[in-house]
Write a sequence for this structure.
């Protein structure tokens, strides 16, 4: 935990000044002492991995995406007998998963920890000063992707990508948050169509769905999960998907590429381990996750209910993918003015 | 209507067996205890119970989880009244009026009135859930950022009522609240404000602020004053804890108004429940014949907001059940639970798994009755437990605050936040700065800001939306009227003051 302990302290002082600075420094000091005490003196790796239980680290609280992924993994790994190691899911919420990243980094070299990694694994380091990034960790596998759909209200005036490209007014687009993959897709689509969209960030999928239901936005860019029932009940219509090929979940929805808009960008769901782990531990984790992803139970209990498109990548491919995604996010976030060079 | 009753009857026949009834009862008790601990709320309660439901049938599992959810809503008021430590934003008013009653030796009455108000508010909310869920859901989604913005402004306008005597101090407290609320990442611009340490990227945890401000602040203040709670002599007679005819009469209409306000405003996602409690408080104070009693243990000021708080619970389930849209932290966890039970929350839920949903609603109705009974019967236990620990109360409250802060994120960072706001709370109380405006600003300022920006972005720069959307216009007129009325009142009062030397 060498997370800029001097930096924040001095800035704290600059803002609050005077008496509070002493208190601030005392608090920082105590925090530091506390966290040092928690770091193990030396981790001894047992000969046969795993020497003890494996800890699954979720960067968000119970009920969040990371938590659901890891708890489902733990359940299937145990019920299918993929590993007999005891698995314990631990929530380390806070700081858009930076707390969990700091926690995992404090166990550098120890393969008994596996952390869920989604887009925040790339964007949080880019947008803040936590002093860590994706390259500090060992990629294990990408389990699947969450494609982005372009969805309209079925009773609205725009019923095809062509309608949207030919719209006369500036269209309102809804998505979750700023600098999110939804916004990046909206911006790329606008560029490909030669149009500017008015992107409106909402907090959470629920608000995006509400906004489209009541016609406050003209279309939304979203993951399948929150809208698939609305599509099935014909209140919404999906006009395009951001994958390379059509997906089984929505066989009738054309890809953006089919319409000559060169956009292939999805959210990923993967797992990473701490940095500098030995080969034995890494091989064990990789084979465990790979067996998991091939089990039918995993498909029916996690992938299908959560509308995740299976697209497994092993450690090397996942590493290259993360590097590519880091580049995409860095460029887009810089273009959007969210991060400075 | 008949269909609805038949479906509800089906739901009851699913759950009315000894095993499920026992499950709901136990779940309610567990929920009450979890909710009573500062820092642990519905999210933590449901998450803790989730593993237990794995071997159960869908109906039994959902009964357990909704029982815990409802129980935490009852439990939140207990610590607010007994030790001035509200566990969530809607319980702040409960602490504001309930704790003074406690110090006057009428804690049992406060607990009784609030339990009964919670029950009635919850029942009103459940009735709306049963009969009007689909209609209400469509109305709720029709409201956009412009309506939400105006609603938040109306909520903020109640600051004047919470301000106390010195308006200048109230303004300072409000602005300090706005400052505190700006910490963390702003999802509209994408910037992180004041992110000195990684833990601050998501902002300062609101629950840590109220635990510090009220719980720890009160401990610090009492250490100096050596206040001894007036707990009266040991009493075990039931009649002392059940509200007498007089208090029932005083609280009847506030509870009814609170219930209606809670279901209509509390349903709205986000800060709906909080705004509803503050509005109910403001309303009761305006209507009261003795407004000067407010802040010093007014029964109607306790009953109305408590009723509107619990009316919002079934209300927040409406968008979840009918549209699959969670409106609060607790319902977000329920959404996860529904998925884990193999159901598909969304517009098709009632068609695909209607029987399970009706069983869950029946479970809520039964749970509400059980919770009223157990909460009233438990009052002597709470009061006498407090009597036993009275001499060590400060240390125990301190311990609860620290454990509560730790349990928010399972790390020590929030303990420091609680400590800092404990000092802030102590200083504010010592120097007569009102905490109400501060806390209201912390909750509502970021929402107001973001809804405003969304409104203008959505209208692509135009301000017309506030008057062209009918509901917005209505809210705007209402806002102008209450401001004009309060100014007119001041002017009239001043003229009278001038003429009579």
């Amino acid at each position: 935990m060498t997370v800029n302990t001097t930096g924040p302290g001095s800035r704290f002082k600059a803002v609050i000044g005077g008496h509070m600075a002493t208190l601030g420094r005392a608090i920082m000091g105590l925090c530091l002492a506390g966290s040092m005490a928690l770091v193990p003196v030396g981790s001894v790796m047992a000969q046969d991995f795993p020497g003890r239980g494996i800890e699954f680290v979720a960067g968000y609280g119970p009920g969040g995406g990371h938590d659901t992924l890891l708890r489902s993994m733990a359940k299937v790994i145990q019920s299918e007998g993929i590993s007999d190691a005891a698995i314990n899911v631990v929530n380390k919420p806070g700081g858009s998963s930076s707390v969990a990243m700091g926690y995992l980094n404090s166990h550098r070299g120890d393969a008994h920890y596996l952390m869920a990694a989604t887009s925040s694994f790339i964007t949080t380091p880019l947008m803040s000063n936590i002093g860590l990034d994706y390259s500090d960790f060992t990629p294990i596998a990408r389990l699947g992707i969450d494609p982005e759909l372009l969805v309209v209200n079925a009773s609205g005036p725009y019923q095809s990508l062509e309608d949207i490209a030919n719209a006369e007014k500036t269209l309102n687009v809804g998505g979750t948050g700023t600098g999110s993959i939804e916004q990046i897709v909206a911006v790329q689509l606008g560029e490909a169509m030669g149009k500017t969209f008015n992107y409106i960030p909402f907090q959470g999928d629920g608000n995006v769905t509400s906004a489209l239901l009541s016609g406050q936005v003209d279309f939304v860019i979203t993951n399948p999960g929150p809208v698939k029932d609305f599509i099935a009940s014909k209140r919404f219509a999906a006009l395009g998907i951001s994958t390379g090929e059509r997906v089984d979940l929505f066989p009738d929805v054309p890809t953006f590429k089919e319409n000559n808009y060169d956009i292939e960008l999805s959210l990923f769901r993967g797992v990473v381990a701490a940095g500098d782990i030995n080969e034995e531990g890494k091989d064990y984790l990789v084979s465990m996750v790979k067996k998991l992803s091939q089990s039918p139970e995993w498909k029916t209990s996690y992938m299908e209910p959560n509308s995740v498109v299976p697209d497994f990548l092993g450690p090397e491919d996942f590493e290259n993918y993360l590097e590519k995604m880091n580049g995409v996010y860095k460029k887009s976030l810089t273009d959007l003015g969210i991060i400075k060079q | 209507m008949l269909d609805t009753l038949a479906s509800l009857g089906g739901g009851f026949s699913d759950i009315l067996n000894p095993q499920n009834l026992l499950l709901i009862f136990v779940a309610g008790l567990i929920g009450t205890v979890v909710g009573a601990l500062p820092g642990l709320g519905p999210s933590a309660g449901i998450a803790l119970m989730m593993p237990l439901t794995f071997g159960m049938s869908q109906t039994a599992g959902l009964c357990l989880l909704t029982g815990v959810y409802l129980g935490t809503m009852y439990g939140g008021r207990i610590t607010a009244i007994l030790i001035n430590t509200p566990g969530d934003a809607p319980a702040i008013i409960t602490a504001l009026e309930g704790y003074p009653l406690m110090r006057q030796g009428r804690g049992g009455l406060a607990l009784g009135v609030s339990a009964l108000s919670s029950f009635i508010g919850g029942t009103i909310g459940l009735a709306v859930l049963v009969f009007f869920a689909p209609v209400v859901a469509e109305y709720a989604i029709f409201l956009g950022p412009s309506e939400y913005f105006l609603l938040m402004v109306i909520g903020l306008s109640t600051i004047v009522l919470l301000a106390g005597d010195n308006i200048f101090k109230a303004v300072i407290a409000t602005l300090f609240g706005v400052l505190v609320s700006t910490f963390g990442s702003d999802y509209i611009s994408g910037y992180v404000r004041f992110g000195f340490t990684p833990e601050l990227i998501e902002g300062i945890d609101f629950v840590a602020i109220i635990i510090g401000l009220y719980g720890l602040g009160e401990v610090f203040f009492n250490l100096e004053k050596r206040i001894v709670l007036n707990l009266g002599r040991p009493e075990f007679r039931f009649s002392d804890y059940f509200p007498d005819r007089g208090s029932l009469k005083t609280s009847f209409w506030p509870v009814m108004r609170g219930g209606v306000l809670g279901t209509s405003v509390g349903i709205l996602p986000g800060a709906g429940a909080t705004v509803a409690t503050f509005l109910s408080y403001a309303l009761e104070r305006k209507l009261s014949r003795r407004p000067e009693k407010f802040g010093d243990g007014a029964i109607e000021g306790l009953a109305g907001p408590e009723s509107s708080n619990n009316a919002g619970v079934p209300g927040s389930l409406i968008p979840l059940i009918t549209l699959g849209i969670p409106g609060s932290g607790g319902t977000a966890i329920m959404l996860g639970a529904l998925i884990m039970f193999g159901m598909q929350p969304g517009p098709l839920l009632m068609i695909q798994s209607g029987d399970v949903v009706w069983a869950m609603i029946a479970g809520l109705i039964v749970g509400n009755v059980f919770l009223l009974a157990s909460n009233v019967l438990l009052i002597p236990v709470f009061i006498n437990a407090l009597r036993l620990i009275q001499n060590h109360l400060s240390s125990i409250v301190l311990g609860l605050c620290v454990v509560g802060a730790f349990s928010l994120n399972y790390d020590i960072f929030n303990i420091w936040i609680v400590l800092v706001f404990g000092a802030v709370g102590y200083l504010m109380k010592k120097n007569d700065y009102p905490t109400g405006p501060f806390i209201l600003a912390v909750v509502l300022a970021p929402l107001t800001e973001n809804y405003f920006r969304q409104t203008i972005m959505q209208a692509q720069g135009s301000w017309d939306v506030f008057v062209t959307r009918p509901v917005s216009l209505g809210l705007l007129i209402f806002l102008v009227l209450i401001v004009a009325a309060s100014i007119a009142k001041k002017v009239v009062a001043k003229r009278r003051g001038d003429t009579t030397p």
